[in-house]
Amino acid sequence: MGSEHSTVDRDAGDRTASGHRASDYRTSEHRASEHRGSEHRASESTTALFVPLDAHTVRATDYCRGPWSPDTLHGGPVVGLLAHTVEQAAADSPMLCSRLTVEMLRPVPLAILETEAVVVKQGRRATLIDAALRAEGVVVARASSQWIAADLAAAPLGGTVPERPDTPSDGRSGGEFEYPMPGFNCDAAELRYVVGSHEAPGPGITWIRLESPLIAGRVNTPLVTVATVSDLAAAAGWDESPGGGSYINPDITLQLTRLPRGGWIAVDARVEHGGNRAALLEAVVFDDHGPIGRVLQSLVEAPSPMARQESQP
User: Fold this and answer.
1) Fewer beta carbons under 10 A from the terminal one: N or C of the chain?
2) Contact at 8 Å (CB) between 95 and 149?
3) For residue 76, how many other CB atoms are within 10 A of its CB?
């Protein structure tokens, strides 16, 4: 993937799919300063995950926060924002995003972020689109997506789906984590556990509904919806490492056979251990009409919250 994503950091003579030069995304500190002030106050009064500042710049809100630090983003909003970015670049192409792979290169800060998309290959049957997410000019996450020719209006084939409980589950704390509030797990998504919970290791099945708009003032598309909640497969199927530690996923791949219909997404997730501090999470993804795809996450053993606190200056 390195050669594909190198297109995102090419020199200023290259243009992105949206027509912007790469140099437009390298003056982030200057551009960020132009957006401070009233936009920051606006972000504090919205339940959206991001407030748009211009066509390629957003400010992350507190509803993006994850369990690892109150100053960094949960993986869900990161995946959702990159899904939105590649989808915007593919807006004129009636194709299905059959695969979206997102790599988190470093913790994504609760700050102003810039997005960029590059059409790597444009074809009649298959199209490749890459994207990058920057904070203060540094790439903090990147994505690769495969788009294929498909009948987007075709009726679902159907299939058995997990039964959805009538009442929401309380996801405000679990194990060694105390989730920030407001935050993504507690306030931006509704979880209904079918099998397992945040207090009991997987395998697990969970229904999820994204309650916050990804971008303030915009309706979530089906791709944005399933991409944003796909990282929560880890909340459904989580497990401790053989040494008793927690896992964290530095990447996520969402593979789709069709787009979801309706706002509810279910994940049937489990962890496969390697016995070497590495593992893999795999989940089947459903909507109300049947299975729609898979989620894969690489898992690496993470330092405990106590170790993280002790390592901070």
Assistant:
1) C
2) yes
3) 27
Q: Quote the tokens at residue 220.
A: 């979530």
Domain locations in the chain as residue ranges: 2-152+172-311
Contact criterion met (CB below 8 Å) for 254 and 92: no
Per the CB < 8 A criterion, the answer to whether 167 and 192 are in contact is: yes
**Residues β-bridged to residue 158:** none
Cα(282)–Cα(277) distance, integer angstroms: 17
pLDDT digits (tens, 9 = 90+) for 145-182: 999 999 998 999 989 999 999 999 875 545 555 677 88
Q: Whose CA is closest to 202, among 107, 63, 295?
A: 295
Q: How many CB atoms lie within 10 A of CB 272?
A: 11
- Which residues neighbour 123 within 8 Å (Cβ) at sequence distance 6 or greater? none
| CB 239, CB 247: distance < 8 Å | yes
pTM of the entire structure? 0.82
Q: Is 86 helix (H, G, I), strand (E, B) or coil?
A: helix
- The DSSP output letter for 164 is P
DSSP 8-state symbol, 1: -
Whether residue 177 contacts residue 201, with contact meaning beta carbons closer than 8 Å, is answered with: no
Superfamily of domain 2-152+172-311: Acyl-CoA thioesterase, double hotdog domain (2.40.160.210)
Strands 112-121 vs 57-60: parallel, antiparallel or unpaired: antiparallel
CA atoms within 13 A on the CB side of 23: 4
The number of angstroms, rounded, from the C-alpha of 146 to the middle of its chain's C-alpha atoms is: 16
* Secondary element (H or E) of residue 237: helix 233-237
3-state secondary structure at position 53: strand
pLDDT value of residue 134: 98
**For residue 287, which amino acid is it?**
D
